[in-house]
Design brief:
alpha+beta; 2 domains; elongated
Length: about 70
């Protein structure tokens, strides 16, 4: 990890992740394995057990908000 300034860091990530390695500390959150980041958006069912995938459901929810 390399500090750029008080609120930005560069972390060593594999290029296969396909994301930027520079992060603002305000965007980072401590990970808790037993907590859902988006409790109302994550499904505990597999995509084959529900209508559409979680991504499709999120897109539909966003479309409704924009209407």
């Amino acid at each position: 990890m390399k500090k750029i300034n008080d609120n930005a860091y560069v972390v060593n990530l594999p290029s296969s992740m396909g994301i930027f390695s520079t992060f603002n500390v305000a965007d980072l959150h401590e990970f808790h394995d037993d907590e859902s980041i988006y409790p109302n958006d994550n499904s505990t069912s597999s995509s084959s057990e529900v209508e559409g995938t979680d991504v499709e459901q999120k897109v539909e929810a966003i479309k409704k908000e924009l209407e």
